[in-house]
Amino acid sequence: MSTKLQNQRRGGGSGRDQGYKFEESFRIKHGGRVPDKRMDLWNERSTMPKTDSVNPDGNRYSIKNPKNTSTWIQTQVCSVERFCRRFGITGSSRESFNMFFGSHKDLMRKDTYKDNPENFKRVCESVWGIDTKNLDYKVELRRSRLSADNVRDVENITEWFHYNIEEVTRFVLAESFNNTNNIETIANKMAWATTKNDLDSVRVFDIEEIVKEAGLLGCHIKDSRTVLRVGVLDLQMKGSGVGTLYHNMQFKCSYNQIKELLNDEGGQI
């Protein structure tokens, strides 16, 4: 394993540990508890709740502890396959998603998920019918995915998100793949630390208010051509991890983005 990858994993592990400790401190302060894991909406496997703390006030909090208020943090990660299954995305639209995130079985192995340009060219040409002669080495060939400029019918993606922003925002912030009948696993509040590790700095937003306001926004491709702005969220290929994880969909948001959307600094508990 490369030194860079080792450092990334150590950094990620340290960040998760800090996050778990902060969540526990939040629960202790407010008398909350961790909800039980339940089966997913297909009743196939156990899935993580979006709720980090079920509080005595009846609210179910998703807790965020970013480096600072402008930091974009991961709020949902999943495979293209599960996302498209969840939302019923099929046909040419599904193929456009596959191209943008590099989702194909021949791009998921440890020897093909990145740094294998010849394999990626083969998939592009034989599976997707994409001319590879003008693909960017660093952005596309090396990372085994296509930028928006080379995804066939990329509007399949942007238009789909435009018309489904409310549902997607609710999925990312409140539900994930949880069965909505298991209400304790579904978050209804976001609790953001506006100063890292400081419980007194926490500000709270109602998720349905975020969903409603985000629904008035659109979806567009950002200047990088590899990131989508979906309402209040950013969406990109995860681009870290090994194999299938590398090509996952990664949604991010920030406190400042939600604050600006709602024109509100958030309440206190």
Describe this protein with a few key phrases.
about 270 residues; alpha+beta; 5-stranded antiparallel beta sheet; 4-stranded mixed beta sheet; 9 helices; about 15% strand; elongated
Break the fold down into its secondary structure elements and pairings.
Elements: H1 3-30, E1 38-39, E2 46-47, E3 53-54, E4 60-64, E5 73-78, H2 80-87, H3 91-101, H4 117-128, H5 137-141, H6 155-163, H7 165-175, E6 189-193, E7 202-206, H8 207-214, E8 219-221, E9 227-230, E10 233-237, E11 249-253, H9 255-262
Parallel strand pairs: 4-6
Antiparallel strand pairs: 1-2, 3-4, 5-11, 6-7, 8-9, 9-10, 10-11
Helix pairs in contact: 7-8
Rg over CA atoms, rounded to whole Å, is 19 Å
> Number of folding domains?
1
* Biggest pleated-sheet summary: 5 strands, antiparallel
- Taken from the alpha-carbon principal axes, the silhouette is elongated
- Helical content band: 25-40%
- What is the averaged pLDDT score? 94
Distance between the termini: 44 Å
Number of strands: 11
Total helices: the number is 9
Outline the structure in words.
It is a single chain. The protein is an alpha+beta fold and 269 residues long. The protein has one domain. 37% of the residues lie in helices and 16% in strands. It is built from nine helices and eleven strands. The chain has a five-stranded antiparallel β-sheet. Helix 7 packs antiparallel against helix 8. The longest helix has 28 residues. The radius of gyration is 19 Å and the shape is elongated. The protein starts with a helix and ends in a 7-residue tail after the last helix.
